[in-house]
Amino acid sequence: xxxxxxxxxxxxxxxxxxxxxxxxxxxxxxxxxxxxxxxxxxxxxxxxxxxxxxxxxxxxxxxxxxxxxxxxxxxxxxxxxxxxxxxxxxxxxxxxxxxxxxxxxxxxxxxxxxxxxxxxxxxxxxxxxxxxxxxxxxxxxxxxxxxxxxx
Amino acid sequence: xxxxxxxxxxxxxxxxxxxxxxxxxxxxxxxxxxxxxxxxxxxxxxxxxxxxxxxxxxxxxxxxxxxxxxxxxxxxxxxxxxxxxxxxxxxxxxxxxxxxxxxxxxxx
Lengths: 151, 108
Description:
Helix content of chain B: 40-55%
Largest sheet of chain A: 4 strands, antiparallel
Shape of chain A: flat
Strand order of the largest sheet of chain A: 2-1-4-3
Number of strands of chain B: 4
Protein name (chain A): YvlB/LiaX N-terminal domain-containing protein
Pfam families (chain A): SHOCT-like_DUF2089-C
Structural class of chain B: alpha+beta
Strand content of chain B: 25-35%
Number of helices of chain A: 6
Oligomer: heterodimer
Strand content of chain A: 15-25%
Domain YvlB/LiaX N-terminal (chain A): 4-33
């Protein structure tokens, strides 16, 4: 079984895709591999590829917190979304008052020189797997497991 | 046209044993709204750039940020985030479950 098909099955298991969507993607993949491409269907094929790319190729930043009792946190953010949002952060930094910016510069932190997009790009290219894996014991919640990973 | 673009961002809040709330946000509508708003803001931005600085120091200070940063650029970036979000149909972005409350943000 190809890795793309495996990935689709994993995504169904994780609840990121519904069974119907998964079936649709698998069908598209089979059609692509078996049928010859007609010139008129090029645009449609591009759309199908886009769907497959979004379902199989994109990487996610996942944050999972699991408590022994009731606590459960599951956050899935596509890295491409973080890249888009990083532009917003650049704008947000423009709102930092000049005096505070000067204070930070004195401490060696130049907000203007901070390249968030590059930082996100580096995470996307170099980080793979778990970044944080912590287990703590809370008197109220019991054992809590925190996991941050890029997949 | 067959498309895998997410249509709705669903925000669900549920309290154990009592009421629940489901808030659907149509992604395409928000996208179109932001696009229109960006153009409107751009027009305002261009108009403000043509206006001379106000004599009153307080007003001048209040208006100065529109010249330092681009509000339309800010809106455009926000629209980019919404557009990007729309690509992930079926994604559960956030799911938080505590003893009493359950919050889920997903794309359908």
